[in-house]
Structure to design on (689 residues):
């Protein structure tokens, strides 16, 4: 095997790829063995999840090209090629894991042209990455027979599905662009990738142009890579882009008349599947019906027809912790969309004997209503907050109907004043269903962050019925609990989407300790957040105070019951509510951060936001056991059941500093920015193009 004298540059384009880029980079040294002189260039298309930081932390020798916006994969590749003068270029997706020696195999496979490796999935199964030139007949063949069966026939399928084709080296018409190498003379002759495609079809266009110019596209099965797989098959917007770009490619190659035929074939392909309820094909059909000459910017901020958003929150902006997911998501959506956040309309009227602090809760809701409509964030002028006057008597059908009319009238009046017509409605609280059912809307997203019917004060049967209505009538259902998503799977099908919580990485960094915390002696066992009696195990907190007299138990947050029981413990310091802006400074002073939850149905379907906040601060965390925490067992110490198990876990963590390291714990949540979560919500809600 002879090695070309030219160096090879590995160009990786990233956008919010923090969760996959590190493993891609770690595989490269072995993959580049025997390939000659090499360099690695990562082009970051303005990620918001700390991707560039992960790259530098993984391999400081990598050249990172920081771009100011995300204008597509092709633009990123072209930017990388500009930093690879005189080199052959290997283009990789961030979710590719090259096998040892693969780059040398690719370089040996083609003297002048393009080479592509054999791709497998994480399970070892071959991915059908080889393609034939797209035609109208092949698109219709896949519509009628399905891609796998049509691929057996050269005339009827674009995807090459023959097993033998993936075992031998041979020339192909083109290959999917997750991993491919182009020689320098090929790049110079064929020119840059067509950036107007943004995503998908740009590699098709380049390789077909290469073939026409006399540069073969060679499949090299000796070069192997694992491809984790992208979002195009599950993301409605991305699948819509795949479909529409095939029409655009046909137009650019063969003219408008041929493009009309391809457009019709794509409609034939998408229509029956859209009727059958497949969300991705519905989006594809919408995209085809209102297709523009070229796709819009990926970040969507430039859209003239962008819909507004109305979010019925489960919290109240004016007195709840502003770390809640509704607030975090909507304030970021409001950077590019007009947003009206409707503060919680409740799930029952607080009543003596069933509710705690009844008078206080009624008074603070009245004060919230009195604020009318405000823009609380000067830096985000598109973010509006209102609190309607509710009548939360959900146990009475008559009063429930009256309440829905009253709340809807207030929300519609504000929407009219703000010129927010046909919004995307995001509902987190089940009682919003009665309000939104008759409202004109662009779409309905149910943010199923908890099983609200398990709320101790709720009228279980009424709230459960409202949850069922939202589940049945929402266009998309978002989950943060895998346990809850699995329970709903048969009902929801492909309308379900696991969004997960995010974390404000810039906010949750270690800061100087506040004076009141600095005065408390260490070591400190700490908790910040709402001290709710249906969430927090107060008996366990008292047990910790008893077991660790030489430690300080620091509790930060509003409490829904009396804290007098802790007054007899000099090592317990309840500091009460602290503003969101100050929480990271207090958390910085914790030696052990705790999540002492009750074992109830609410917690079994929960995913506490504070977990990622603790980890972003690099804190050693001890938690009671619940389903979602098992996905964090590599960085959180999960206590055995019972108070004894929790005490033992805290004692062990004080001794060894906890699972993982402070840097490792923070690095583990770098992909979880709220910006990335908000973008995923917008892409899902708006579908199509």
């Amino acid at each position: 095997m002879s090695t070309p004298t030219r160096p090879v540059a590995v160009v990786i384009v990233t956008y919010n790829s923090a969760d996959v880029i590190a493993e891609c980079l770690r595989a490269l040294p072995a993959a580049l063995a025997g390939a000659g002189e090499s360099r690695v260039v990562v082009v970051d298309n303005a990620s918001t999840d700390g991707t560039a930081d992960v790259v530098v932390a993984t391999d400081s020798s990598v050249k990172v090209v920081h771009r100011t916006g995300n204008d597509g994969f092709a633009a990123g590749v072209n930017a990388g090629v500009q930093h690879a003068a005189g080199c052959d270029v290997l283009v990789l997706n961030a979710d590719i894991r090259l096998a040892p020696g693969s780059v040398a195999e690719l370089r040996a496979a083609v003297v002048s042209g393009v080479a592509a490796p054999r791709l497998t999935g994480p399970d070892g199964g071959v991915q059908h990455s080889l393609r034939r030139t797209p035609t109208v007949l092949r698109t219709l063949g896949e519509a009628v027979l399905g891609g796998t069966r049509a691929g057996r026939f050269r005339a009827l399928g674009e995807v090459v599905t023959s097993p033998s084709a993936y075992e031998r080296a041979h020339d192909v018409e083109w290959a999917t662009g997750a991993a491919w190498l182009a020689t320098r003379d090929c790049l110079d002759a064929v020119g840059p990738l067509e950036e107007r495609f943004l995503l998908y079809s740009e590699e098709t266009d380049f390789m077909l142009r290469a073939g026409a110019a006399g540069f073969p596209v060679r499949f090299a099965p000796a070069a192997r890579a694992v491809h984790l797989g992208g979002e195009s098959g599950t993301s409605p917007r991305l699948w819509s882009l795949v479909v529409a770009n095939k029409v655009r490619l046909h137009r650019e190659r063969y003219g408008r008349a041929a493009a009309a035929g391809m457009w019709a074939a794509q409609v034939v392909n998408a229509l029956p599947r859209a009727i059958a309820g497949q969300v991705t094909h519905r989006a594809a059909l919408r995209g085809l019906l209102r297709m523009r000459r070229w796709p819009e910017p990926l970040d969507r901020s430039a859209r003239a027809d962008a819909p507004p958003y109305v979010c019925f929150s489960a919290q109240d902006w004016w007195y709840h912790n502003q770390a809640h997911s509704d607030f975090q998501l909507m304030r970021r959506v409001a950077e590019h969309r007009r947003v009206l956040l409707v503060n919680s309309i409740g799930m029952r009227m607080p009543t003596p004997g069933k509710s705690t602090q009844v008078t206080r809760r009624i008074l603070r809701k009245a004060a919230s209503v009195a604020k009318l409509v405000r823009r609380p964030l000067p830096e985000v002028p598109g973010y509006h907050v209102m609190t309607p006057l509710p009548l939360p008597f959900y146990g009475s059908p008559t009063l429930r109907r009256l309440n829905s009319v009253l709340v809807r009238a207030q929300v519609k009046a504000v929407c009219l004043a703000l010129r927010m017509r046909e919004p995307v409605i995001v509902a987190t609280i089940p009682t919003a269903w009665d309000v939104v059912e008759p409202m004109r809307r662009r779409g309905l997203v149910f943010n199923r962050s908890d099983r609200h019917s398990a709320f101790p004060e709720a009228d279980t049967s009424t709230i459960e019925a409202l949850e069922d209505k939202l589940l049945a009538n929402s266009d998309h259902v978002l989950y943060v609990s895998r346990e809850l998503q699995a329970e709903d799977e048969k009902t929801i099908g492909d309308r379900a989407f696991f969004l997960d919580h995010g974390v404000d990485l810039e906010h949750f960094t270690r800061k100087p300790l506040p004076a009141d915390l600095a005065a408390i002696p260490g070591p400190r066992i700490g908790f910040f957040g709402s001290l709710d009696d249906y969430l927090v195990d107060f008996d366990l907190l008292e047990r910790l105070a008893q077991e660790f007299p030489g430690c300080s138990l620091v509790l930060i947050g509003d409490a829904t019951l009396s804290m007098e029981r802790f007054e007899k413990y000099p090592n317990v310091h309840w500091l009460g509510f602290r503003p969101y802006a100050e929480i990271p400074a207090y958390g910085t002073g914790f030696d052990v951060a705790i999540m002492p939850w009750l074992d109830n149905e609410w917690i079994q379907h929960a995913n506490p936001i504070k977990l990622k906040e603790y980890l972003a601060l690099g804190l050693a965390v001890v938690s009671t056991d619940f389903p979602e925490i098992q996905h964090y067992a590599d960085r959180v110490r999960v206590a055995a059941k019972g108070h004894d198990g929790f005490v033992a876990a805290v004692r062990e963590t004080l001794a060894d500093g906890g699972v993982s390291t402070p840097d490792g714990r923070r690095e583990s949540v770098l992909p979880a920015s709220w910006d990335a979560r908000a973008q995923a919500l917008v892409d899902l809600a708006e579908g199509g193009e």
